[in-house]
Amino acid sequence: MPANLPPQYYELEREYKAERDPRERLRLAQELLRMMPKHKGTAKLQADMKAKISKHRKALEGGEKSHGARQAPAHDHVEKEGAGQVILIGPPNSGKSSLLESLSHAKPLVADYPYATREPLAGMMMYGTVQIQLIDTPPISAESFEGYLSSLIRNADMVVLVADLATDTMENDLKVVTELLDEKRIILKPEITEEPEDARYCYKKTIICAHKEYDDEDGSRYARLKENFDSFVIAPTSILDDDSLNGFRKAVFDGLQIMRVFTKPVGHEADFHDPIILPIGGNVEQAATTLHRDFAQKLKFAKIWGEGKFDGQRVQGDFVLSDGDIIEFHT
Ligand SMILES: Nc1nc2c(ncn2[C@@H]2O[C@H](COP(=O)(O)OP(=O)(O)O)[C@@H](O)[C@H]2O)c(=O)[nH]1
Ligand SMILES: [Mg+2]
Predict the structure, then answer these.
(1) If you ran DSSP here, which 8-state letter would residue 319 be given?
(2) Strands (DSSP E) along 93-157, which ranges?
(3) Residue 262 pLDDT > 70, yes or no?
(4) Which of 98, 170, 214 to mutate to test the pocket of ligand 1 (most atoms within 8 A of CB)?
(5) Which ligand 1 atom is the nearest neighbour of the CA of 88?
(6) Which residue, of 8, 20, 178, 243, has the greatest Cβ tally within 10 A?
(7) Ligand at shortest distance from the CA of 140
């Protein structure tokens, strides 16, 4: 029985065969299996692909050390921590490592020569009391694209594309980045309003960082950046300007589309140190669930303080919260 595979299958299969990064190979194998029409004619192919997937997975987990097989590099995945994972990407020397250094306690290598950063490094950036994880990465250019970057970007909650306003090649350098990502089927988007039609693609929410803003004396590079990345949020930054860095923190927090809700134990003051983080539009029930899985079921009502509410307004589980609200749970 003929397999009748679609042309995209063969295209993807070629990529799979050429791919060397273990995590990316696993992902491509899973996509190939998904694309395979499920009928008798593909039964053997399906079984083979399932075996391959299982082998890739084992190799990644380090469970199987086949002869001479290279271990998966540890830096193709960064465990998520904090309220969101944000990946800094961009051309060589644009200032990604400097940004991480200025915004967290991490100690990346900052250098005045390109390609100083060889592997990803994570650090925690504070926005008020909210912790946001930033990942510094090796540069993307025509000469260099680390295979594991695709997995890292796909896995992140948001991308910050760092533009270097100190260089005349800024426009072209960024074009190279977006084109290389396109080839990997990663499309940077100002907003995610729809899922990609083709499951092999990944749309990633992105904001642009207009870095080294003071080196753009007449503002012309900034203007071009705005033109090229129309409708993206652009945060101008310089490591020499704390206000700009605070603006960056806010732009990242806003971009993540999350909000803070402060809890208040009955008869006590609100706790402003450790907010509950919810997606924008989250309700009282979701807030209760983040504290404990069963807590939402026990909830009789909650009292809310915040903008546009009566102080201590009594609400039920479906009540939609806003950033900065204070909530008192009653069980
Ligand atoms: N003028 C200026 N230079 C910066 C700024 N941020 C970083 N740099 C310089 O840009 C160069 C590259 O920085 P680095 O963080 O290593 O870039 P990366 O390759 O993108 O990680 C270094 O010489 C930094 O000192 C900034 O805000 N203004
Ligand atoms: Mg660097």
Answers:
(1) P
(2) 121-127, 130-136
(3) yes
(4) 98
(5) 20
(6) 178
(7) 1
Residue 247 backbone dihedrals phi, psi, to 5 degrees? -60, -40
Domain count, the chain: 3
| The pLDDT of residue 74 | 59
Rama region for 4: left / alpha / beta (φ>0; ψ in -120 to 50; rest): left
The token pair that represents 142 in the structure block = 């025509």
- What tens digit of pLDDT does each residue of 275-286 get? 999 999 999 999
Q: Which ligand 1 atom lies nearest to the CA of residue 162?
A: 20
Q: What whole-number distance in Å separates Cα of residue 178 and Cα of residue 125?
A: 26
Q: Does a structural domain hold residue 1? A: no
pLDDT band of residue 60 (cuts 50, 70, 90) is: confident
- The reply to whether 123 and 25 lie within a common domain is no
Which ligand is located closest to the Cα atom of residue 103?
A: 1
Name the H helices within 108-241. 149-155, 170-183, 220-228
What is the 160 CA–ligand 2 centroid distance (Å)? 14
Task: List % helix, strand, coil for the chain (3-state, nearest 5).
Answer: 35, 25, 40
pLDDT attached to residue 22? 82
Residues 136 and 169 in one domain: yes
Considering the domain boundaries, does residue 66 fall inside one? no
Gap from CA of 222 to ligand 1 centroid (Å): 17
Q: Whose CA is nearest to atom 23 of ligand 1?
A: 112
pTM for the predicted model, two decimal places: 0.83
Give the model confidence (pLDDT) of 202-246 as tens digits.
999 999 999 999 999 999 999 999 999 999 999 999 999 999 999
Kindly state whether residues 266 and 218 are assigned to the same domain.
no
